[in-house]
Design brief:
By secondary structure, the chain is of the alpha+beta class. The chain has 2 domains: about 90 residues; about 100 residues, no CATH class. Strands 1-2-3-5-4 form a 5-stranded mixed sheet. The chain is elongated and about 55 Å long. The relative contact order is 0.11.
């Protein structure tokens, strides 16, 4: 297991256990209190340097999310994602589950995530996307036909992507997925493929 992922998983586990204990003690009784508790917990962890220095950017990011977005930050959800992505359990799940997990994480970071019908994907009513807005847009038919009954990928998933690709790649990779640029005149078109999936992409 990657040591960096292990450290992030440990950070997330500590935060989730602290939150669970606070719930049992009656200190936390609402989502707003959860966000406040975790924001304070992260601030204390940062100030006291409780974790390895390579986690400083992760702690800073989580802290900024909690302070700036409040309830919308969903700090428990972010910590749960980091824990599952880092402890090895996530990679044992099927391709569809891991993709859904990655896309949930993308949403938690503030990206737009939409599944588009064929009429929104192409033609006169095609949805116009702004390169300045971070978003990932999947084709519904491509998504529906992309997996077998066991949740294993059988076709590459077409996606239009806008925004910071490196940040998206990090989230996809943690869930055992990757992005491949499509050979197309459409600069936003990519394919999403699971780690062990192989198919000629066009």
């Amino acid at each position: 297991m990657d040591k960096g992922n292990l450290n992030v998983s440990h950070l997330a586990w500590c935060g989730l256990i602290a939150l669970y204990t606070a719930r049992l003690d009656g200190q936390v009784n609402s989502p707003a209190q959860e966000n406040l508790f975790l924001t304070r917990w992260l601030a204390t962890a940062e100030k006291q340097r409780r974790f390895a220095k390579e986690l400083a950017s992760d702690i800073s990011w989580l802290l900024r999310e909690g302070r700036e977005k409040g309830l919308r930050a969903d700090l428990p959800g972010k910590l749960d994602y980091l824990w599952r992505a880092g402890n090895g359990n996530l990679k044992a799940q099927n391709d569809l589950f891991r993709l859904q997990h990655a896309l949930q994480a993308v949403k938690l970071t503030g990206w737009i995530y939409m599944v588009l019908a064929d009429s929104e994907w192409s033609g006169r009513r095609q949805l116009r996307l702004s390169p300045a807005v971070s978003g990932i847009y999947l084709n519904r038919n491509g998504l529906d036909s992309g997996f077998d009954e066991h949740g294993q990928q059988r076709r590459a998933i077409p996606a239009r992507i806008t925004g910071e690709l490196n940040a998206l790649d990090t989230l996809l990779n943690r869930s055992g997925w990757r992005r491949v640029k499509a050979e197309s005149d459409d600069a936003m078109l990519h394919h999403l493929v699971a780690e062990k999936f192989s198919e000629a992409l066009s």
